[in-house]
Amino acid sequence: MTDERAELARRFAAQRGCGTMLSGIRPPSVREQLAVLGESLTGDPVPDFYGEGGPVEELEGRVAELLGAEAVAFFPTGTMAQQIALRYGAELTGRDGVGLHPLSHPVLHERDALVLLAGLRTVRTTDAPRNPTAGEVAALDEPIGTLMLELPLRDAGFVLPTWDELTAVVAAARARGARVHLDGARLWESTVHLGHPLAEIAALADSTYVSFYKSLKGHSGAALAGDAELVRYARAWRHRHGGNLFQQWPAALAALAGLAHELPRLPDYVAHAKVVAAALATLPGARVHPEPPHTHQFRLWLPHPAEALNEANLALAEEERAWFVGGWRDTEVPGVALAEVTVAGPALELDADRVVDLADRFLRRLPQS
Question: Which UniProt keywords apply (predicted)?
């Protein structure tokens, strides 16, 4: 086993042993996940075959209902779904430019797939750490076929626009003759800040992608929603991309379980994230962003090296069965590290005082300067 794999195994074991967790969830074992699939079954459904029928079709119908969409296609990954949606926009408009943020997922996390596989060009909408404004879209110096908006913009700190800002930027894109696509990997929890239900948010766009594992605790998978013409096109290109898996019912059942059990809890997570963030902001040298959080996830900075913070968190988990925050990484500021905090079910048990107490126990494990 490599050092990296050994470290991942240690972290997994430490998290599984924790009775108290501030950020994230206790990772389920394979056996526990299989039990969830069994609980999701109603009757004895037939499996899907190459994306048709069974739980996959049930899931597509449920998502179409939630998003108010004419049609939905299930995909094994959001990367694949979004490339196809953006390609469709280019073919319809005759413009290969895609307006998107330089911190968006296709730019940072997909190894230039949008360019190399879909033949599209990226057009930066803004360098500010937020989604673009209507004025910035109107001022773009080249035409775009599609404006892609990531809601929330994860790598800027899970930030969202206001509803008025969102509707204005959509209108600006329309005025330029562009389509609008929503990267809604975390759209489920964005309804609280935007103040509108999922269907009203999705209705602003021509296409919307949602993820089933980021907030809903599914195994994998994504959905692309839009009109019937888009979805017919998406199914053809899904096949070309190798996304027509023989059977995907395990992922579909896990997603249905997430829609049933996690989706209704997300507003509580978002509300409690504000309590947690306010408590963490009182720690020595700490900074949180955004303050208050827009969703149930936010960024936390502490004035210590990442290695020391990660080791302190693992030691706390292994010795006290308590998980503070993991996944620290160093920043461009020497001696300051950053982590993403996810407030989920376990954190609801911690009020502000218990958050501060857990943080103090964590900080005491850091080397003293």
Answer: Pyridoxal phosphate
Distance CA 218, CA 220 (A): 6
Task: Report CA-CA distances (Å) from 135 to 139, 162, 204.
Answer: 6, 15, 18
Q: Does residue 119 sit within a domain?
A: yes
Coil, strand or helix at 181: strand
Residue 221 lies in a domain: yes
Triad 173, 112, 159: Cα angle to 5°: 50
Structural domains counted in the chain: 2
Q: Which two tokens stand for residue 345?
A: 């079910």
Tell whether 197 and 273 lie within a shared domain.
no
User: Does residue 40 lie in a domain region?
Assistant: no
Same domain membership, residue 115 and residue 20? no
Nearest one of 265, 269, 266, 309 to 285, comparing CA atoms: 309
| Tens-digit pLDDT profile for residues 31-59 | 988 888 877 777 778 899 998 899 999 99
Query: How many contiguous H segments (helices) and E segments (strands) does the chain have?
Result: 15, 13
Residue 155 has phi, psi (to 5 degrees) of -80, 5
Strand-pair category, 146-150 with 322-323: unpaired
Q: 332-348: per-residue pLDDT in tens?
A: 999 999 999 999 999 99
Q: Which domain holds residue 126?
A: 48-246
Alpha-carbon gap, residue 255 to 221, rounded angstroms? 8
Coil, strand, or helix at residue 287? strand
The answer as to whether 16 is a domain residue is yes
- In angstroms, the CA 200 to CA 181 distance is 14
What pairs with residue 322 in β-bridges?
20
What does DSSP say about strands 97-100 and 146-150: parallel, antiparallel, or unpaired? parallel
Match 């290695």 to its residue by tokens.
307
290 and 182 belong to one structural domain: no
What pTM did the predictor assign?
0.95
